[in-house]
Predict the structure.
Amino acid sequence: MHPVSSTTDDRPDGSPRPDAIRAQHVSVTYASGTEAVKDVSLTVPEGEFFGFLGPNGAGKTTTIKALVTLLDPTGGTVTVNGFDVRRDRRALRASVGYMAQETSVDLELTARENIRFACEAYGVPRAERAARIDELLDLVDLAAVADDQAKTYSGGMKKRLDVATALVHRPPLVFLDEPTTGLDPKARNRLWEYFREINDAGTTVFLTTQYLEEADQLCDRLAVIDDGHIVAEGTPAELKARVGGDVLDVDLIDDDESSRDRAVRVVRESGLLDGEGSVSRTETGVSVTSLHARRVGTDLLVALRDAGVAVEGFEVHSPTLDDVFLAITGTPASERATSADGESEPSEGPTDQKVGR
Ligand SMILES: Nc1ncnc2c1ncn2[C@@H]1O[C@H](COP(=O)(O)OP(=O)(O)OP(=O)(O)O)[C@@H](O)[C@H]1O
């Protein structure tokens, strides 16, 4: 796999930005034998908002853990903020913030107390703590409830508190592991604002997500991981351009597997796509990507009807990152979910612990 190349602008004086993350041929095999990460190479320059996108179980969390020294890679080399993941573990950990998927908030404590605890754990000088706590409470809009116990907070508020605790030591690089999973759209949008603010202030962000829209909204550049391999990389616009054409999504009344397969055959055999484009099953029907999707859409619907395939609805649109995933892997992201058992320990891995603590 080729390393993910940088497209971020150089500095004003023309010198290239140093790399915040440099990972070469990284692999992680768990003791169970699961090869969770296979030959992953990526480079993230300072200041970038980088997205690591992939379905459930693709290897996102394992990659982050290898980057922040919570797991030892089975193979490959990693430097983060110039620190080697094997040789400079302590310095590396002190130089990054990490918001894990599971909350680290102590529900019995208030927001202020949670942040103060994180300041102590990260060694923020005593004299600076009060101001730092107020600054972070403001950043994540929790000042008004700062002295309420965290158990009274909504899911979104707890996530915001997690963001604040990951930032207490002002790390130049922050890892956000699926930070908005399970949140409603309003809470998600609010978190996006903070992530943008953090990045605008100069912090490099490495975000993992299953939400293609999230990656599209926030990220300068993306890598898509599937089954431990990086399968695509580029800016959101570049990835969408890879789809090559517009997308016709057709929902079927009978959307069982054989009906969807039949619809795929009908589209392929219709000859309407002039030998280009692609057609794949979706969860509820079929998706046709073609340079001619807009022009031949109606004819395709007629062909389906004539073949006895009942159509419930359809839509033609410009490609989204969902379409990118489908085009790259041939399967919708949602159909590729595998269960992350999370049971056995990695072959060389130390136990999980919060970075910097
Ligand atoms: N501790 C572990 N022991 C054994 N296998 C594991 C362990 N943790 C994860 N895996 C497996 O490694 C693979 C990658 O999992 P990982 O959690 O890195 O994926 P992910 O992309 O972060 O997914 P999710 O969105 O579910 O967090 C999966 O097959 C998962 O079942």
In short: Residues 30, 32, 34, 36, 54, 56-62, 210, 338, 340-345 surround adenosine-5'-triphosphate (CB under 6 Å). The mean pLDDT is 86.
